[in-house]
Amino acid sequence: MPQANYLTSIFRNIRYGVFQSTLASYSLDAIKSHQKGLMQRGLPKQKPIVGVKDIVLVSSGKGGVGKSTIATNLAVGLKLEAPDKKIGLLDTDIFGPTIPLMMNLHDTPFLTDTNLMEPLVNYGVKCMSFGFLIEESSPIIWRGLMVMQALEKLMRQVNWGDIDYLVVDTPPGTGDTHLSLVQNLPINGVVLVTTPQSAALQVTKRGAVMYNMLKIPIIGLVENMSSVKCPNCSNEILIFGDGTKQLSEDLQVPILEKLPLNRTIADGGDKGVPVVLDANNGQSELYRHLAKKVVQFLSSKENSKVIL
Prior knowledge:
Elements: H1 2-24, H2 28-40, E1 52-59, H3 67-81, E2 87-91, H4 99-102, E3 120-122, E4 125-129, H5 144-156, E5 163-169, H6 176-184, E6 189-194, H7 198-213, E7 218-223, E8 227-229, E9 236-238, H8 243-251, E10 255-258, H9 263-271, H10 282-299
């Protein structure tokens, strides 16, 4: 036992002594610089998608906050607000693609003579999704490498033609898909979607930190399902509180829009008719207002494409 204690003491002294002396020889700035060099080593060179001018990501670290619904209505809203512009919608959620349902597109894309996929079109928006390439009920049981290969096809093997604004619907999280998009494409900005409860806000903040680290401009926050209207008295009821305001202040980015929990929004997604198309629906104006703010951001002189 004494021998064991003696050896343990030696190991402890070596482990902590050497570790602390090593840390002391490096400044914090030097460590950060070294980490940055490792992160950038071997990164792919960003390359624009042929014909595409501006790329906007719709993202959130948390799943189930309504990214696809907002991406769909944003893309169609952009077309309504700027009819002379050409709009594209790219669904990068390989495991759970929902753009085919929400845009009412269920055909298989044709191939050009150069083996590029032709986007499917509805409501004046060109769309591409991995959901167009698989059976509706087929699960995707893939490991990361196959997912990245599929994402590469969606990024590089689509005949977009001329596109002014490409809206990219991203999957939940801050993983391979997001890093691949940012490292391979010049992203003009990201719209972060969250619901107001703490569980979503915390994860959305992590996503925002990731984009800040990667120097991707954050256009702003969209607070989804922020309230519900009482069917009897028509008062707005805050379901989850108002935590998004604090997140906005912490990140120093604006809240672009607050969208309610509304049956017509859900019905529009289920039927493949985005609610933004219904001029008589009050929710339509909210999405068109969101589209205007995105256009204003992309048109501002302060915005520029970031090359890593």
